[in-house]
Amino acid sequence: MSKGKALIRADIRRARRDHHALAEDFLESWRTVLAELGVSTSSPAALFVPTSSEPDVMGIVRECRRALLPVLVANGSRLLEPAWGWHEGGASLVQPDPAWPAQPDTPILGADALAGVDVVLVPALAVDQRGNRLGQGGGWYDRALLERRAGVAVVAAVFDAEFVDEATWPVEDHDCRVDAVITPSAGVILGG
Questions:
Q1: Residue 30 contacts residue 179 (beta carbons within 8 Å)
Q2: pLDDT digits over 84-129, tens only?
Q3: In terms of Cα–Cα distance, which of 62, 52, 143, 136 is closest to 101?
Q4: Which run of H or of E encompasses 105?
Q5: I want to staple 104 with a disulfide (CB 3.0 to 4.6 A). Which of 3, 62, 85, 109 is the partner?
């Protein structure tokens, strides 16, 4: 992780303390993007359960009939490599460790489970108009996204001010670009 990225991440996290958006705002943007991508709202998706500082996408999680969700903790230990679990709409989530987001209480699947979805929603701290995503710094999603099928779109969720014209952070070779962005006020398909 470069020092430049670390400072930018800290600034964004501080600014996020003042962000308040409803889950319904992100849900409407999600529906818009799915329609533009030609993906059915009933298609299996890979989603995430937000922390208190991330965009509230729980409306999307609740609406999705079948979704892969990240599994970050198993048997009391943090998993170091990407893992997933299927979540059926309406099912409860468990929180095996209060330091990490809730997750499904279903069998743990490897990163290759991502090949079974039609769209992927990822968290981000910022995204630029070219699709460059600034993540949290661990590379979890960059490693996981390598397992998706060719042509499966990646959508990032950020607050409006975090969707910027041009990246102000170093973009590295391993950083996976996103195809679309959802914010509380819009859903945007990005060009090449």
A1: no
A2: 999 998 899 999 988 889 999 999 999 999 999 999 999 999 999 9
A3: 52
A4: none
A5: 85
